[in-house]
Design goal:
Blueprint (H helix, E strand, L loop, with lengths): L2 H13 L7 H37 L6 H13 L9
Length: about 90
């Protein structure tokens, strides 16, 4: 069974038991487990482009790269795990 199907199976079961006090926690855990690899890949891609932007900014004194640097930083901050540990 693939990861997406496993996630949906858990969510389907939880949707049938919305009064379960652990429903939200279990749903978040299932979604986080599914998304973990994608989030990690996106973080790595953003880190690479951030480093490339920093290198360009260093080479090109007098140019303003702050918008690009700020955008990459804001993307990183929006990802799960930016301010808390990703499980």
């Amino acid at each position: 069974m693939n990861r997406l199907q496993s996630c949906i199976d858990v969510l389907r079961r939880l949707a049938k038991e919305p009064e379960d006090p652990d429903c939200v926690i279990l749903a978040e855990r299932a979604l986080n487990d599914y998304l973990k690899n994608e989030i990690d890949a996106l973080k790595a891609a953003l880190a690479r482009v951030g480093e490339a932007i920093d290198e360009e900014a260093e080479k090109r004194q007098g140019e303003d790269w702050s918008v690009m640097i700020g955008y990459v930083q804001s993307c990183l901050e929006k990802l799960p795990g930016a301010n808390e540990e990703w499980e």
